[in-house]
Task: inverse folding
């Protein structure tokens, strides 16, 4: 490492190491935070340099019901959680992707992720752009759609793109982020099965979730890390069985490591800049984009062009 | 079937049947055409209603070398091949997707696909938008990039999108076509291994090819049919081993049927409108697109916005 300017040297390192912390919701916010800290420390001990927590990691998935009381769970950014985790990032010299329920002015709230650099500084914020509203996933009730657009964060170790859960279904999101230079896309996530439909749809749902993200990694020639929660969270309507299975894949769509469906796990995976470069030179997709011909993407289906 | 207006009735049918003809290049253009006709007849006998041939099906993959003589292989559309196949389409009452080396005015050429409706009428043309130029895939030498944009064809049996081979790597292409209302995307293709790199890269290349297309099916909630050639075609530089493996997948990213790597095969698969509807209602991705936020897609990486 270059002592005087470690960041530049590290950005040119032949590889960088991704850490994923997959957990059950804790019994309280402080319990969840403690669990996250343990996971981050474990990932760092295993060599992780950029560590991502799951979506809304500090709470149970409260969007199962419409309850205005839940807005009390939100916090400002910066705020107490980012302060604690900034100190940890600085101490461990790791980059952190911290998904939070963000409180903004005027009773506006976002489903966000804060990126903290390895010196503890907040680099910026991604606010979830695509907001779902499905049975037991009532996010449109809670979250104002993101207003910061797609972003990339130049961290000490790599150029990092962050998208959140439902964003994963939108190739526009991964592409727009990759076009900003992302070397890796993180998807903090809270996806699971509704028990009543698992038998019929469960296999297809999980297959779709993996397939679409592997596709993003291939078409954008990036590493991709999906960080999902695990465990069953009950609700009046029956609850959600979060399916875990957090994974990292490479730009060929190969899953390099994947967590189990049901256990808390920390995954650490090396991402190679040589692989990125080789993939992009062998199949130079970015060379051949038809930027003259993509205006249709700015429209809805059935809309006059 | 409604005798007076069969097309409207068929468009509302609960399903439509896709046919894929995977073949080796014939020893001559007429031999390839005969082979294609046999394949189409076999597919129709098995119930196929929309049948797709592989990319540049009437020739060996001549793009392995730069040879201006090869421009003599091109033909006009309409032309002799489409006339023959229009008659066949009318006789069998099938829709045909016919990939051709298209001759245009002024020594301009395209890698195109002509869509012929079940009454034998030419519905239109797709001209390959993304043109590769890789070792032994010298398409930029032969083909003017498509100037017709992305398109969908309302055939008797379904709304059909056509993209060609290298287009498969571009999520913009599948999305733009799906936004026009495609129920199925066809990808006539000529992809294979270079023998000298197969050991090192072959597995990853084929995995990427499948993964990216499964991803398109999931994110766009369409059926997807990739129709690849098979067989080894020699050239001075060592040749290409086309990997076959033509497949149809459903909107959950499940491969419903797949041909072998090495044999000529005809595949017929039923595509269900109920599945399309259910997938789109269960996970309403199209509802949540952020058309206000996709302008970055009209730029290259590193370009000022």
Result:
């Amino acid at each position: 490492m270059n002592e005087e300017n470690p960041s530049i040297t590290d950005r040119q390192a032949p590889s960088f190491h991704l850490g994923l912390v997959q957990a059950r919701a804790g019994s309280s916010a402080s319990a969840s935070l403690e669990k996250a800290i343990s996971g981050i420390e474990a990932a760092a001990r295993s060599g992780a340099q950029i560590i991502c927590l799951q979506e809304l990691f500090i709470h149970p998935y409260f969007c199962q019901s419409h309850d205005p009381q839940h807005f009390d769970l939100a916090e400002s950014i910066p705020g107490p959680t980012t302060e604690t985790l900034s100190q940890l990032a600085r101490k461990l010299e790791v980059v952190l992707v911290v998904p939070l329920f963000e409180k903004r002015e005027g009773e506006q709230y976002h489903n966000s992720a804060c990126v903290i650099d390895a010196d503890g500084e907040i680099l910026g914020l991604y606010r979830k752009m695509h907001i779902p509203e499905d049975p037991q996933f009532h996010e449109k009730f809670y979250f104002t759609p993101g207003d910061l657009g797609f972003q990339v964060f130049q961290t000490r170790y790599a150029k990092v793109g962050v998208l959140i859960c439902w964003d994963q279904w939108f190739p526009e999101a991964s592409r727009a982020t990759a076009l900003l230079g992302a070397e890796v896309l993180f998807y903090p996530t809270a996806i699971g099965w509704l028990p009543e439909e698992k038998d019929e749809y469960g296999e297809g749902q999980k297959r779709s979730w993996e397939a679409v993200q592997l596709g993003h990694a291939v078409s954008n020639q990036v590493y991709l890390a999906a960080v999902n929660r695990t465990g069953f969270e009950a609700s009046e309507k029956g609850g959600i069985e979060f399916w875990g299975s957090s994974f990292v894949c490479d730009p060929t769509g190969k899953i390099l490591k994947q967590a189990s469906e049901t256990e808390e796990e920390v995954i650490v995976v090396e991402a190679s800049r040589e692989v990125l470069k080789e993939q992009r030179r062998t199949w130079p997709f970015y060379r051949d984009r038809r930027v003259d011909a993509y205006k249709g993407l700015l429209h809805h289906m059935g809309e006059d062009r």
